[in-house]
Amino acid sequence: MDDIILEARHINKYFHDPVDVKVLSDINFSINKGEFVTVTGKSGCGKSTMLYILSTMDTDYEGALFIDHVPMANKPEPELARVRNEKIGFVFQFHYLLSEFSVLHNVMLPGLKLAKYPAQEIEKHAMERLNMLDIGRLAYKKANQLSGGEKQRVAIARALINDPCIIMADEPTGNLDKKNSEIVFDIFRQLAGERKQTLLIVTHDQEFAARTDRIIKMEDGRIIK
Ligand SMILES: Nc1ncnc2c1ncn2[C@@H]1O[C@H](COP(=O)(O)OP(=O)(O)OP(=O)(O)O)[C@@H](O)[C@H]1O
Questions:
Q1: Going along the chain, which residue ranges are E strands?
Q2: Among candidates 195, 149, 193, which has minimal Cα distance to 172?
């Protein structure tokens, strides 16, 4: 029981478009520390919608969400922002790097926001993450000078800067070729194995999903398996 890091209890979600449409029905599951979990299902089944709720970025839902045993529903936004910064690293499909800033600065930003360490220390941590992902040599390049695979690794380094207990990613290999997908998979596997970080990854890539600890399969807004 103590090993649970994320728990969703009977979550429902409606879009008002303009009439109410139910897009998530009774989402009910938990994830343990250090688990490497993927979410799969056809386009439009609700994967991204669920991930946005579980990451606390979307608060318009019914049901309960616990992160590290703390209830998230009805928490004010500044508190949720703090939980996100401290506990969750999010990797978006399209990176959302600041293109005119250096790679190093992009990776440092969530650390500077959390302000748990002085800037010099955060810079050191950022370099460690970049080296771990084998892209230390890119630290002083601008983000818009990188390839897609390199950008994705920078986005992962940025998600790791505050040592989150959970890393969530929406299609992190969606734009990558096989070699780069493989690199990203190996990084995630290493984070779950050696650092006991929890991974929750939305993916269409069946090969990728098949090699993770658990697959959550969705259909029409429900978890079917
Ligand atoms: N802002 C919105 N307003 C109304 N409906 C929405 C909105 N966002 C998503 N939807 C609908 O909710 C459903 C779930 O969308 P979601 O993006 O979660 O699916 P998905 O499984 O992640 O799809 P994909 O694999 O294509 O990214 C879809 O039917 C979509 O059209």
A1: 4-16, 20-32, 36-40, 62-67, 70-71, 88-91, 166-170, 198-202, 214-219, 222-223
A2: 149
Q: Whose CA is nearest to atom 5 of ligand 1?
A: 15
Pairing outcome for strands 222-223 and 214-219: antiparallel
Chain segment 166-211, per-residue pLDDT in tens: 999 999 888 778 888 888 899 899 888 888 899 999 999 888 899 9
Residue carrying structure tokens 């606390």? 56
- What confidence category does residue 18 fall into, taking pLDDT thresholds of 50, 70 and 90? confident
The string of pLDDT tens digits covering residues 137-163 is 999 999 999 988 889 899 999 999 999
Give the Å distance between the CA of 223 and the centre of ligand 1.
15
Residue 153 and residue 131: Cα distance in Å, rounded?
A: 11
The whole model's pTM is what?
0.90
Domains annotated on the chain, with CATH = 35-60+75-223 (3.40.50.300)
- Ligand 1 center to residue 221 CA distance, Å? 10
In testing the pocket of ligand 1, which one of 11, 21, 25, 48 has its CB within 8 Å of the most ligand atoms? Answer: 48
| d(CA 44, ligand 1 centre) in Å | 5
What counts of helices (H) and strands (E) characterise the chain? 7, 10
> What whole-number distance in Å separates Cα of residue 205 and Cα of residue 212?
11
